[in-house]
Design a protein that fits this description.
Helices cover about 5% and strands about 35% of the residues. The chain has about 120 residues and is mainly beta. The relative contact order is 0.25.
Length: about 120
């Protein structure tokens, strides 16, 4: 029996100025590597057009073959302060859909290929 999905309540209202502070960009996932001693984390090397960065994502158990996302474009938050996890530093966040609701996450991807570094919004 499948349990019916019930959307979470909408968060409190924010201003357009607050929203404008979040820098979401398209990047191509160049490589996916395991993070040693972590059951969840993967290290993504992401090309943003003018530079590459390391983004850690807690998606190791969400896919049978995590490397299947290599070469795919996705959305990333790129202006978060760097965060150290399991001896690695993450320089942003993968913008995925479903994790917060307990749904198997899916990548947030552009409808068609766009240049790496293109901003969302």
């Amino acid at each position: 029996m499948t349990q019916e999905f019930k959307p979470a309540p909408i968060k409190s209202t924010i201003s357009f100025a607050e929203l404008d502070r979040i820098d979401i960009r398209v990047g191509t996932i160049v490589s996916v590597e395991d993070v040693e001693r972590s059951d969840k984390l993967l290290k993504l090397t992401v090309d943003f057009g003018d530079h590459c960065r390391c983004i850690l994502a807690g998606m190791k158990q969400e896919r049978e073959n995590p490397r299947e996302i290599e070469g795919r474009q996705a959305l990333f938050v790129v202006n978060l302060e760097p965060k150290k996890m399991m001896g690695e530093t993450s320089e942003g966040m993968l913008f995925d859909i479903g994790y917060a609701d307990g749904v198997t996450p899916a990548l947030a991807i552009p409808e068609s290929k766009v240049p790496n570094g293109t901003r969302a919004g």
